[in-house]
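quick one, 186 residues, struct below
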Amino acid sequence: MVDERKIEQAVLSIIEAIGEDPKREGLVGTPRRIAEMYTELFMGIDADPREELMVGFEEGHHEMVILKDIPFYSMCEHHLLPFYGLVHIGYIPKGRVVGASKLARVVEILSKRPQIQERLTTQIAETIVEALDPDGVAVVIQAEHMCMTIRGVKKPGANIVTSATRGLFRTKAATRSEFLSLVQGK
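---
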């Protein structure tokens, strides 16, 4: 549970620490706005993403299912700056499938925590494995990190790409290649 009062106090201290006047017209409501924003940005901390995958359908489907180009926004835990991009998920069900929106909700919950991209990729894959017990899962994330864009090395447009494979996606090169070609649109 986010403690908005503590966030407001901390932001007020930051405003003062950088030499600004927290009573200045443009800054008066900033501590409250940031506290409300953090409540939204970190809503995934107390949520269990596996619950999103509890409702499924026994369809007898055993072929690859892909949901690609899922936009996400997360906060780098090292600098509390955003990173954002696209997630691509593939899984091979053992007959039971879930609605596409459920996979997108898993991404939403796990990205709404202080994160690093590598962990986010793994957590998405592991959540699907635990909840659906598929024959395989693949997750690819491509993201731009504001901590590399607006500070430090200052390289806008640079993207980090991470992947996680489980089951047939890890053991069968042809399955992994099919997924990657479908995600890349080739």
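The mean pLDDT is 97.
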